[in-house]
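Re: that chain you flagged

S.,

Sorry for the slow reply, it's been a week of failed gels. I finally had a moment to sit down with the sequence you sent. For the record, here it is as I used it:
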Amino acid sequence: MKILKIGERNFNQYLSGVEKRITQDPLRLEQEVRSILRDVKKWGDKALLRYTERFDNVRLLPSQLEVKREEVKDAQKRTPPLFLKTLRRAGRRIRKFHEISKKRGRVRWIDEGIRIEQVVKPLERVGIYVPGGKASYPSTVLMAAIPAKVAGVGEIIMTTPPRPEGIPPAVLVAAELAGVDRIFRIGGVQAIGAMAYGTGSIPSVDKIVGPGNRYVAVAKRLVYGAVDLDMVAGPSEILIISDDETPPAFVAADLISQAEHDEMALSILITTSEVFAGKVKAELERQLLTLKKERIARKSLRQRGAILIVKDLHQAIELANRIAPEHLELSVENPLRLAKSVKHAGAVFLGLHTPEAIGDYLAGPSHILPTAGTARYASALCVEDFQKKINLMRFSKKSLRRFEGDVKRFAEWEGLEGHYRSIEVRMKR
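Prediction finished late last night. Pasting the structure tokens below so you have them in one place:
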């Protein structure tokens, strides 16, 4: 992992590359994704079965696309009891956080014969995409489905790639705990297409949420408009701001916790101490030697990671706001004070004993966060992502007359004569 000092040419080159990490996917990838989406839209279940066999090496019958209730019940028995207890505990904490954050009530404005309201309605049907291929992510099920359930979504469907041995039981248990209504063993671009357009087995949804690989990200972007999206997520990210009061082992472990996700994951440490930087680098090397995913983490840290040395914490926060990371750890003596200057981050973790990993599993807020610098304008997945707002208006004849002249002037200016006539005809009765 390289160590770079502010002011040096390679420091600025690295920072510029990080800031420009929001890039379009190669044209070839987009063309391939478009082809799969077209097939799913045209052939429905037939395309799902064909692509599942091709990409997941699992041959399914049409009747096997949807997971039966008996399989979900059986998954409870196949999940280790202690982990089942953990899943339930995480589910309770995530549900409690989103219940607290849920907005209740409505906007209401009454004024001389005029009634203006804004009511909040849940979406009717949403789709949860849960990555599956080489790993199992029950935490993502909880983080995506529970806010939707709390919001009052009418039906939650979930898609996840199949495996020859079946869907991991903890994923099915998490779906049951979160309130998922229907589960389909289908993944990749074809799953996104199925949820966007609908097939014989899988209904179309109003919104798709959940992370995935670059193919899934491109597919989500291409179906936007047919459905709404949470976000188009990129590789996982962590940025740690730390002084030399933090044990280097803590910082090294947290950098690795993101680097082990993906070779394209981004792990950055910003510190004011060159000596501390050297200690963290040495600790990284020590911890990597015993990591199961050493190859992935090492490549990520070597190619994408960096330790940036700055003059002070003020400068560190300025850089963090420029980078707008998915996860930001403030591992400093007074994290609350420093947090006041944070403008752009998906989630902020305060102090020595709040590693990013606790947020991944059961702190409460969703771990589905904006990546690739989109924290400049996007937020963590929450209850509001599964709701829409409808404005209600009611005028009496007397109150409508008060604005007749204003509407007439607008209509004349914009050349929309019929707009004013809809007022005028009422005033003549």
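What I noticed first: The first strand starts at residue 2 and ends at 5.

Talk soon,
D.
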